[in-house]
Design a protein that fits this description.
By secondary structure, the chain is an alpha/beta fold. It has 17 helices and 14 strands. The protein has four domains: 283 residues, TIM Barrel (Alpha-Beta Barrel), CATH 3.20.20; 46 residues, Helix Hairpins; 57 residues, Arc Repressor Mutant, CATH 1.10.1220; 112 residues, 2-Layer Sandwich (Double Stranded RNA Binding Domain), CATH 3.30.160. The strands form three sheets. The protein has an eight-stranded parallel β-barrel, surrounded by seven helices. A three-stranded antiparallel beta sheet has the order 9-10-11. Strands 12-13-14 form a three-stranded antiparallel beta sheet. Bound molecules: acetyl coenzyme *A (ACO) and 3-methyl-2-oxobutanoic acid. Acetyl coenzyme *A (ACO) binds next to strand 3, strand 4 and helix 5. Acetyl coenzyme *A binds next to strand 3, strand 4 and helix 5. Its cofactor is Mg(2+).
């Protein structure tokens, strides 16, 4: 097998930020930031087939419905599809009053003018200007000095200022991104941003948005937090700027970086639903928002029907949401493994007796119901599963609440089936296995209940009379006794030599209304020392318990 080569010559450690009195590690995120969705821009520029106007509109409507108030709707100078969508949306009058659209442009005069033109007639809009500032981009892409790169930003800002004046009916907001901020010298990013602010003259009442991207994530998230705190502390006229975060996920920590960035003093977060975006994607707004939610902070975004959100996102991006994606993935609330299932089942049982709302179900960081998910898929059964798993499935699917000791008995049947099939066992598999194991609602080979009647003698003794088919031949049986079960058991012993002693019995109601039935469970000891279980389900408890006796008798003679 080949080995990775020694990386030390090719790659260098990122190093540290000189901020010994950093404050962010001891801060909490106590309120939601301003959110900007860049699904229709950064997300759209990263997919194989960019969205057409129909898909963009559907995505836009979804974002509005979720409650996103700032939406980057595209890159108007990219081409006619983008321009026409944006100007069509503006002219449609369908942008709600509390939603502001944003467009992105390189710092090139013609592109900036095109961007303003696309927004003609907008009530309010954010024009977002960017140019890369870090050494690699300066040296390789622009082949420019620091001053020349700063001049690109200043020139772009001047065009923005002048264009805004040409369309006085729109409430313009300006955003500037020193692209590649996280790999640039911090003091240089501050210098460029301050120069842009000088041109655009923001005030605390009409601030500029300074968006600080980790264009390519290159360090651990604490470094990004240090960079944000440093920037916030050293930016002149800080109160006239909204500090915005725009992280990517190249190292898999885009959300973590944005969270620490908020602790470091930022006000706003840009990202995409389910983390779509260039390469490994942008910061995932769903994860960010629901992380806040699970800390008791209202994120201001509504994911209460997450499956509908996923459906639209998958349709528009033509990329599936991964089954393990935080909060949204199909498998993220599912436990296959025995000890997890056991803990989850106990967690739900504890919830029924708990008298406060606090969510404390082990292994589930959030109540799936809050996102519109049912509890059905919380536990699924395969060869890694334990008793809690099939007991949960039988309870949810059939309403059965097996006694703990019977679960242990049924466990070997389930384990054998899972090993034999080598796949997940669905609810039907488990129910079939249960019916076969305990001769429930099957046509058992030996004892079958044909008819059953119960009466009371004048002294109150119960009298049982009925017909049992034994190997297909009907036989009358009867018995007397205080306990119906022992009476039926006695009859079976006398008439057919079934050698069983009842050691435990339980019953519970099943279903409601016209579906109401009863389930009875019987633990018996056979003459040769084995433990044999029986289960009966019928319209009333008495018949269910008679069936439970026959179920145990069938097992006794079958094994
Ligand atoms: C990190 C990000 O996600 S940034 C957003 C990136 N998104 C997009 O680019 C999607 C839309 N873009 C496009 O459709 C095209 O890039 C267009 C139509 C806007 C422009 O296309 P082109 O004119 O062919 O230029 P292209 O994008 O290749 O840029 C190359 C030139 O612009 C310069 N440039 C790149 N970015 C910037 C910038 N932000 N500001 C100013 N100049 C820039 C480059 O240095 C290069 O200059 P050169 O030709 O003198 O070497
Ligand atoms: C334009 C900027 C904000 C960007 O998309 C990035 O740096 O990733």
């Amino acid at each position: 097998m080949s080995m990775l080569r020694d990386p030390s010559a090719k790659y260098r450690p990122f190093g540290q930020i000189n901020l010994p009195d950093r404050q962010w590690p001891s801060r909490l995120i106590e309120r939601a930031p301003r959110w900007l969705s860049t699904d229709l821009r950064d997300g759209n520029q990263s997919i194989i087939d960019p969205m057409d106007a129909v898909k963009k509109r559907r995505f836009f409507d979804l974002l509005v419905e979720i409650g996103v108030k700032e939406i980057e709707v595209g890159f108007p100078s990219a081409g006619a599809t983008e321009f026409d969508f944006i100007s069509g949306l503006v002219r449609s009058g369908d942008i709600p009053d509390d939603v502001t659209v944003q467009v992105l442009t390189q710092s090139r005069e013609d592109l900036i003018r095109t961007s303003f033109a696309s927004l003609e007639g907008a009530r309010a809009a954010i024009v977002h200007l960017y140019n890369a500032v870090s050494p690699a981009w300066r040296d390789i892409v622009f082949r420019m000095s620091k001053d020349e790169v700063k001049a690109i930003a200043i020139a772009g800002a001047k065009v923005m200022r002048d264009e805004a004046a040409r369309y006085p009916d729109t409430d313009w907001h300006f955003q500037y991104s020193p692209e590649t901020f996280s790999t640039a010298e911090l003091d240089f990013s501050i210098e460029v941003c301050a120069a842009v602010m000088e041109v655009l003259a923001p005030t605390p009442d009409h601030p500029i948005i300074l968006n600080l991207p980790a264009t390519v994530e290159a360090a651990t998230p604490n470094i990004y937090a240090d960079q944000i705190e440093y920037f916030c502390r050293h930016l002149p006229n800080r109160e006239s700027a909204v500090i915005s975060l725009h992280t990517h996920n190249d190292r898999g920590t885009g959300v973590a970086a944005a969270e620490l960035g908020l602790m470091a003093g930022a006000d706003r977060v840009e990202g995409c639903l389910f983390g779509n975006g260039e390469r490994t994607g942008n910061c995932c707004l769903v994860t960010m928002a629901l992380n806040l939610y699970t800390q008791g902070v209202d994120p201001g975004l509504d994911f209460s029907d997450i499956d509908r959100v996923i459906e639209t996102v998958e349709y528009c991006n033509d990329i599936p949401v991964h089954q393990r994606h935080p909060y949204g993935g199909e498998l993220v609330y599912t436990a296959f493994s025995g000890s997890h299932q056991d803990a989850i089942k106990k967690g739900f049982e504890a919830r029924e007796t708990q008298n406060d709302e606090q969510w404390r179900v082990p292994y589930l960081p959030i109540d799936p119901a809050d996102l519109g998910r049912s509890y059905e898929a919380v536990i699924r059964v395969n060869s890694q599963s334990g008793k809690g798993g099939f007991a949960w499935v039988l309870e949810k699917d059939q309403g059965l609440k097996l006694p703990k000791k019977m679960q242990a008995d049924f466990s070997r049947h389930v384990q054998a089936l899972a090993d034999e099939l080598g796949r997940e066992l669905n609810a039907a598999d488990i129910w079939d296995a249960f019916r076969r194991a305990y001769h429930v609602k099957t046509h058992p080979k030996h004892f079958q209940l044909v008819r059953y009647e119960e009466s009371r003698a004048s002294d109150g003794t119960r009298i049982f009379a009925g017909t049992i088919a034994v190997d297909g031949v009907e036989q009358s049986v009867s018995g007397r006794g205080n306990g119906l079960i022992s009476s039926v058991m006695g009859t079976l012993r006398e008439a057919f030599g079934v050698d069983l002693e009842v050691s435990d019995y339980s019953e519970h109601a099943l279903g409601q209304g016209t579906d109401a039935r009863a389930a009875a469970y019987l633990e018996c000891r056979s003459g040769d020392g084995r433990t044999i279980w029986g289960c009966g389900i019928d319209e009333d408890v008495a018949t269910a318990s008679v069936r439970a006796v026959l179920s145990a008798a069938n097992s006794a003679v079958a094994s």
